[in-house]
Amino acid sequence: MTINEAQDQVIEEFSDFDDWMDKYQLLIDLGNEQQPLDEKYKTEQNLIEGCQSRVWLQADEIDGKVVFQAESDALIVKGIIALLIKVVSGHTPDEILNSDLYFIEKIGLKEHLSPTRSNGLLAMVKQMRMYALAFKAKTA
Question: Which end of the chain is less packed: N or C, by CB atoms within 10 Å?
Answer without folding.
Answer: C
